[in-house]
Amino acid sequence: MREICCLLRELDCTIEEDLNTLGIVLNSTQLVFKPYSKSLYACYRAKTDKVYLYLYQDAGKTKIYDYKHYLTQVIHEMCHVIQYYDPLWVRKKNVMHDNKFWEMLDYYLLEAEQFYLFDKEVITKDDRFFTCKKNEG
User: Fold this and answer.
1) DSSP string, 84-109
2) How far is CA 80 from CA 7, 35, 73, in A?
3) Which pLDDT tens digit goes with each residue over 68-81?
4) Considering only CA atoms, which of 54, 56, 52 is closest in space to residue 81?
5) Residue 111 parent element (H or E)
6) Mean of the per-residue pLDDT values for the chain?
7) What is the DSSP letter of 61?
8) How far is CA 88 from CA 47, 65, 85, 91, 100, in A?
9) Of 112, 99, 38, nearest to 73 (Cα)?
C-alpha cells in the first residue's frame, strides 16, 4: 500500500490543490486511493475520517477514470465531511443526501467548472498516475 501511495502522490497533490482552490480543506481527513470496487466510486468513513477513492473501472486494473470523475467524487465525499463536522447539521435516519448536501455539491461543482479544474487529464505510464493539463487540440 505504501508503494501505491508513493506512485499516486502527484494525483493526490493535484486533487488537494484543486480542493483548496474551492475553499475545501482536508484538515485531518485523509484521502486514500483504492484500486477497485464493484459498487462504489468513492466513500467517506466518519469513524476513520478517511475518503476512499477507487481508481479503476475494472477489477483487472486496465481502465482508469478521467480526472473530472476523480475530482467530482472527492468533492462529493468532502461535502459529507463538511456536513459531518458541522455542529448544526442533524443526520436523519436513512438520509445520506439531504437538500443542503445537494445545494453544497452543486455549488462546489459549479465553482470547479468556473475555475476550469476539470480541464486536466490523468495518464498512466508504468503503472504511475500523472495529471496534466488537457491538450487543447
Assistant:
1) HH-TT--PPTT-SS-HHHHHHHHHHH
2) 27, 22, 11
3) 999 999 999 999 99
4) 52
5) helix 99-114
6) 89
7) S
8) 19, 35, 9, 10, 12
9) 112
Extract the C-alpha cell encoding 93. Answer: 435516519
d(Cα 114, Cα 116) in Å, to the nearest integer? 5
Question: Taking 70 as the threshold, does the pLDDT of residue 28 lie above it?
Answer: yes
**CA–CA distances in Å: residue 63 to residues 67, 82, 128:** 13, 31, 13
> By C-alpha distance, which of 106, 96, 107 is closest to 44?
96
Contacts of 24 (CB under 8 A, 6+ apart): 75, 78, 82, 108
The per-residue pLDDT for range 89-108, each reduced to its tens digit, is 998 999 999 999 999 999 99
Q: pTM here?
A: 0.89
Cα(64)–Cα(35) distance, rounded to whole angstroms? 10
CA nearest to 52, candidates 69, 66, 33: 33
